[in-house]
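Posted in: Protein Modeling Q&A

I'm a second-year student putting together a small comparison for a lab meeting, and my supervisor asked me to include a predicted structure for HNH nuclease domain-containing protein. I've never done this before, so apologies if this is the wrong subforum. The sequence is pasted below exactly as I got it from our records. If anyone can share the structure token output, I'd also love a short note on what stands out.
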Amino acid sequence: MELERAVEDWRHTSKQRQQAGGWARSARQFDDAVKKAYREDLPIYGFLVARKDSEKQLGAFERSEASFRQLDTELWHVETYEMESGQYLIRRGAAPINTTGMVDTIAGPPHENSQSRSGQADAENGASLVGAPTSVDQFIGTERPEQYIRSGLVFERLAEVRRYVLNRAKGHCELLSCQAPGFTTLKGYTYLETHHATPLSDGGADSPANVIGLCPNHHREAHYGSSREAIYKEIMLSIAASETGLCP
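Accepted answer (user: helix_wrangler)
Welcome! Here is the predicted structure, written out as tokens:
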């Protein structure tokens, strides 16, 4: 986006705008390649590069020069790719079995005589919720709950919480006014998107009481719609209804 804005910025010279356009095209091509590798579980070949004057601060239109470049003998893999933000994580080494491209496996519903809080506690404590795989969400393959630097500070979601919520949703949008079934992926799984009612960046809890399974349309509306406040209120009511099994 920054490169695309630079192309249209009249304050830059014609040469600078042309340079930004070339970089933007390269960035899009690289992003397309990363997405393809993630979707198809393809390995990545990487180069090991050392930069000249590594301590030098470069200007917006300056490119660094390499003092060393060599094809890495070890394969890399795309561990995560978030379709909504375009943020991704590439790791050195072949993809571990059942990690990259792994679908979230869903447990059966909690025992009828147990309280919803017990299911929430299991998710918060990292208890295993493994069963027959039926549903996936937009964070397939993301398994770390911690924060780390990846083009800025990114908050990772607990996989166990997402699995619990997908199981709770039973393949349908949990918004009370919707209840539409998720679509079926090419691999035969039901697709829904998990959404934090109060964002993690705003101090929201990574627990079932703050996470809902939504259809893609309502997930986008929750983020970008003019009625976000009303959607938020309905989301909280919907989560409560899903956790207790009682409709308002």
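A couple of things worth pointing out for your meeting: Residues 14-39 form the longest helix (26 residues). The longest strand covers residues 66-71.
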